[in-house]
Amino acid sequence: MATLSDGKLYIDGKLRDAAGGKTYDDIGPWTGEVIARAADASAEDMEEAIAAARRAFDETDWPTNPAKRRELVTKLVEKLKANRDRLAEIARHEVGSAPGATAMAQVDGPLGFIHRLFDIFDQIEWEKPMGDSTTFGLKTDRIVVKEPIGVVGVITPWNAPLYISIGKVIPALLVGCTVVIKPAPDTPLMSAIWGELADEVGLPAGVLNVVTGSDPALLGEMLTTDPRIDLISFTGSTGVGKRIMEKGSATLKRVFLELGGKSAAIVLEDTPDFAMTVAQSIVCFHAGQGCATITRLLVPRSRYEEAIAVLEQTYAYYATMWGNPDDPANVMGPLISARQRDRVMSYIESGKAEGARLLAGGNIAIDKGAGFFVEPTCFVDVTNDMKIAREEIFGPVLVVIPFEDDEDAIRIANDSDYGLSGAVRSGNPERALRIARRIRSGTISINGGLPINVDLPFGGYKQSGIGKEWGLEGFHEYLATKAIGVGIAA
Ligand code: NAD
């Protein structure tokens, strides 16, 4: 059994226990055992964190001193990089990341491109002179300025906590906001480390606060309803995103929401490497716990049986290749929790009950021990009105749906409440691009291209979210716009 250092709160520049010394168990998904204890914050702790962040914004030079911010945030980034091995251990034991996933999206990916955020920060146009204008007889010199929005409540999920926190916290701090991080209860250590490193760097008190807790909603709702919070930057499920919007409306809170997905890949009949493309569609990376994971595979009716045969072979081959925590090539480990495992299993039962054909998997993998493992699972003969085609499962489950022609494929892909990501494959790039332009999603891949990167805006259409993370757009989420008119004497 692995043990990690216990997690503390970081509030108003102090690393400390929760009020009354309360802690809770941090459960490791590979084993189901306790791997550490984390501070279990109360409402009183969150109250202090919000007050500290507000003070740091209103009463210090943090929002107005870009040189100081750059220097300290650079140090914080260097600290994160220097702690790569510790972050990888937390990703492995707390997040349940397999080594191959740690090397990509969990740790090495975000630490590899984090420095590029400074280049994007440099592209912000802080002041735009608009020139003179005489309107209603008033001669005016005009300027449009950008300013930090204020105090940001950052609420994060458990699936890729380091990657997601970097995408929020670094832009927010660089532009001059102050931050309260409220991580998911399942992954407290991946956020507690931000507090430790901020303390080592000497960030001014209150600029960054980390408040972990076992209750999924209590601390987040405090952020969402508190008038001292100017923006909620949230990544998580669509259901909670809606709740945040609703709760935030009383103070007309600005909300930035990165939510769920049910993305479709359209593999056209002229795809040159058809079998390989279909085989690569299996949902296994991080056990399918990715918002942009493609979980609906749309294949042409004319090649449907061929696609099913390829998938049957691929799943049989892959069945022995996942779940090893020591294999550097392995990208699939357990689900985060018993709760999530049971949720995924209930979707599998629903797929069977609705008449989809289970081609592979479908079971809890008991041979892998007491962790939260579900086999890579594939349903065929799925129709797009089934629950397994409409709802986000967030587990290793692929559904396969046949289509008749391009129009039918576009219709099925767009017939979803979600619109986060997607993919088109074809031997004819113009045809693929024509289809991609008609898919209602925030990102889309053509022939294996990667539409997600530090300098590209990421975020959903429809019920997949509001706003964009990463790229210059990701910085603008943390800015407010002010128009200034200076009177010119006649
Ligand atoms: P979740 O919505 O259950 O929880 C996310 C966070 O919200 C947690 O910190 C949780 O404690 C907090 N929370 C819960 N109730 C709250 C409330 N009433 N008010 C304020 N905060 C509250 O999501 P999860 O299960 O942790 O993560 C999985 C979800 O995240 C999936 O739906 C996935 O698609 C989504 N996700 C989206 C993206 C994206 O960028 N679009 C990225 C990763 C994950």
Characterize the structure shown.
With 490 residues, the protein is an alpha/beta fold. It folds into two domains: 9-259 and 464-485, Aldehyde Dehydrogenase, Chain A, domain 1 (3-Layer(aba) Sandwich); 263-453, Aldehyde Dehydrogenase, Chain A, domain 2 (3-Layer(aba) Sandwich). Helices cover 37% and strands 21% of the residues. It is built from 17 helices and 20 strands. The chain has helices at residues 43-59, 66-82, 84-95, 99-106, 108-113, 116-121, 161-175, 189-201, 218-225, 238-248, 274-279, 304-318, 338-353, 387-390, 406-414, 429-438, 471-476, and strands spanning 9-11, 14-16, 23-27, 34-39, 127-135, 138-148, 151-155, 178-182, 208-210, 231-235, 254-258, 263-267, 294-300, 357-360, 377-380, 397-403, 422-425, 445-446, 465-466, 479-487. Strands 14-15-16-13-12-17-18 form a seven-stranded mixed β-sheet, sandwiched between helices. The chain has a six-stranded mixed β-sheet with strand order 9-8-7-10-11-19, with helices on both faces. A three-stranded antiparallel β-sheet has the order 5-6-20, with no helix packed on it. α2 (66-82) crosses α8. The longest helix has 17 residues, at 43-59. It is globular. The N and C termini lie far apart (79 Å). Nicotinamide-adenine-dinucleotide binds at residues 155-160, 164, 182-185, 216-217, 220-221, 224, 235-237, 240, 243-244, 258-261, 291, 392, 394, 420, 460, 465.
Q: Assign the CATH topology of the largest domain.
A: Aldehyde Dehydrogenase, Chain A, domain 1
The backbone outline, from C-alpha atoms, is globular
Mean pLDDT reading: 97
Q: What is the alpha-carbon Rg in Å? A: 24 Å
* C-alpha termini separation: 79 Å
Question: What small molecules does the structure contain?
Answer: nicotinamide-adenine-dinucleotide
Structural class, from secondary structure content? alpha/beta
